[in-house]
Amino acid sequence: MRLDRFLSETTPLTRSLAKRALKNGEVTLNGEPIKQAATQVDTEHDEVKLNGERLALVGLRYVMMHKPVDVECTARRGLYPRVIDIIDLPKVERLQPVGRLDVDTTGLLLLTDDGQWSHRVTSPRHRCAKVYIAELAEPMEGEAAQQAIGQVAEGILLEGEETPTQPAMLRFITPQQAELTITEGRYHQVKRMFAALGNHVNALHRRSIGDVLLPDDLAPGEWRELTPEEIASF
């Protein structure tokens, strides 16, 4: 790998700033000052230091977060803080949400810089189950609840869509709290499904994705890296 690219991969420096640091004599390779940006680096064996601090490439990361309300899953800065603003990791801007949550939705959010892994989780072909807890505006019980369960199991044609949703599973915890398990990720899908059932979602929380469950001891705004077992489960 070229030395200027290595610097941009391991520090906040852009390629142009990396070249400037090289020209200023701030970079050493195996103890020797190096100024040539095109110098090749053996990323496994060479020792590169910037102002005396050893640099190392950042590997692929897999993170779970308990997303709180009023936090956005976007890359651009907007009205709300971004999820990557909460995570304290090198090159955090490379992490991408694996299926986004709305700004007012809480719960399990996965982030990674491994594009192939992200695709495995989100691809409709893999039918990865996602479990949501919805607080409803209106109670649903008795025959109305049973009809809703049946409609969800068969698939619902959402407004503006040409094909119905994939069969899903609806369970009522209380008349105004429902657990919905879906295997798709359509735009605002859960809220639109309950709208099609004649109800409104007041609050929405994602409990799990596949076999990865949001831990009870992970408070809103907290995050941790996934275990090898959790990564391999997809």
Automatic annotation (TrEMBL):
It comes from the Bacteria. Its EC number is 5.4.99.-. The keyword Coiled coil does not apply. It catalyses: uridine(35) in tRNA(Tyr) = pseudouridine(35) in tRNA(Tyr); uridine(2604) in 23S rRNA = pseudouridine(2604) in 23S rRNA. GO terms for molecular function: 23S rRNA pseudouridine(2604) synthase activity; RNA binding. One of its GO terms (biological process) is enzyme-directed rRNA pseudouridine synthesis. The keyword Cell membrane does not apply. Keywords: Isomerase, RNA-binding. Residues 1-61 form the RNA-binding S4 domain. It is an enzyme of class 5 (isomerase). InterPro entries: PsdUridine_s_RsuA/RluB/E/F_cat, PsdUridine_synth_cat_dom_sf, PsdUridine_synth_RsuA/RluA, PsdUridine_synth_RsuA/RluB/E/F, PsdUridine_synth_RsuA/RluB_CS, RsuA_PseudoU_synthase, S4_RNA-bd, S4_RNA-bd_sf. CDD domains: PseudoU_synth_RsuA, S4. Pfam families: PseudoU_synth_2, S4. NCBIfam families: pseudouridine synthase. PANTHER family: PSEUDOURIDINE SYNTHASE FAMILY PROTEIN-RELATED (PTHR47683), RNA-BINDING S4 DOMAIN-CONTAINING PROTEIN (PTHR47683:SF2). Belongs to the pseudouridine synthase RsuA family. This is Pseudouridine synthase.
